[in-house]
């Protein structure tokens, strides 16, 4: 399973991939330079060379365009599905960190994330399309581990996932450091050790 980037389009002329790519790239450059608060549709028009009417045929709002550009910047995020719950959780952790490291918005991403939270509509769209798909998949994996008896009964799947994510957010948003995949996976491994069920017959 893979999270892929798609532009939300409405009725109108056939989509021009070149125009879509130019608008997304221009939006990413402006977000990197100015953040969310400094982003204006007229600047995107000038930067991309794409008409405002064309932009609004593809994205009905600036909010939609911002989220789409961030989605595109993060790139595809393959959701592991091997059947090995622990291995899939570790791989998912690595996928998330590496997507953040390779994005052209890596430098500005922490500030953009904080700005997003100040705008309810944008925050809701950002969470629905970027945060929740990965978070909910991780929660589902932990829940599966509990159901199979791999993890302790009573384990809170959301708490497990959010604890690992907390390292990533803290390092990037507070310390302004790029979290390494190794550090994130080390925290994930510590969490898994803490919730593993006792082998049957132990004790």
Can you describe this structure?
With 203 residues, this protein is mostly helical. The protein is built from 9 helices and 2 strands, in the order βααααβααααα. It has helices spanning 17-34, 41-48, 52-58, 62-74, 85-102, 109-116, 120-147, 157-174, 181-195; strands spanning 2-3, 77-78. Strands 1-2 form a two-stranded antiparallel sheet. Helix 1 crosses helix 4 and helix 5 (85-102) packs antiparallel against helix 7 (120-147). It starts with a strand and ends in an 8-residue tail after the last helix.
Which helices and strands appear, and what pairs or packs with what?
Layout: E1 2-3, H1 17-34, H2 41-48, H3 52-58, H4 62-74, E2 77-78, H5 85-102, H6 109-116, H7 120-147, H8 157-174, H9 181-195
Antiparallel strand pairs: 1-2
Helix pairs in contact: 1-2, 1-4, 4-7, 5-7, 5-9, 6-8, 7-8, 8-9
- Cα separation of the termini: 40 Å
Q: For the report, how would you describe the main beta sheet? A: 2 strands, antiparallel
* Strands ordered across the widest β-sheet: 1-2
Tell me the Rg in angstroms.
19 Å
- Provide the structure class: mainly alpha
Task: Determine the number of helices (DSSP H or I, runs of at least 4 residues).
Answer: 9
Classify the beta-strand content into a percent band.
under 5%
Helical content stands at 55-70%
Shape: elongated
Pattern of helices and strands: EHHHHEHHHHH
Low-pLDDT windows of residues: 2-14
The mean pLDDT is 88
Q: What is the count of β-strands?
A: 2
């Amino acid at each position: 399973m893979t999270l892929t980037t798609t532009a939300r389009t409405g009725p109108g002329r056939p989509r021009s991939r070149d125009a879509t790519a130019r608008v997304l790239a221009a939006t990413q450059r402006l977000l990197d330079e100015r953040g969310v608060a400094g982003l204006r549709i007229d600047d995107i028009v000038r930067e991309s060379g794409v008409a405002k009417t064309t932009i609004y045929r593809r994205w009905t709002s600036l909010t939609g365009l911002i989220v789409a550009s961030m989605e595109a910047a993060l790139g595809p995020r393959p959701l592991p599905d091997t059947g090995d719950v622990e291995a899939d959780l570790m791989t998912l952790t690595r996928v998330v960190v590496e997507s953040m490291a390779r994005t052209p918005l890596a430098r500005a991403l922490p500030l953009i994330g904080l700005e997003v939270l100040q705008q309810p509509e944008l925050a809701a769209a950002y969470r629905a399309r970027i945060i929740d798909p990965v978070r909910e998949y991780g929660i589902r994996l932990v829940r599966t581990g509990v159901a199979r008896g791999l993890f302790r009964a009573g384990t809170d799947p959301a708490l497990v996932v959010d604890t690992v994510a907390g390292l990533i957010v803290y390092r990037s948003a507070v310390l302004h450091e790029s979290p390494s995949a190794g550090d994130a996976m080390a925290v994930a491994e510590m969490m898994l050790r803490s919730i593993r069920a006792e082998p049957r017959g132990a004790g």
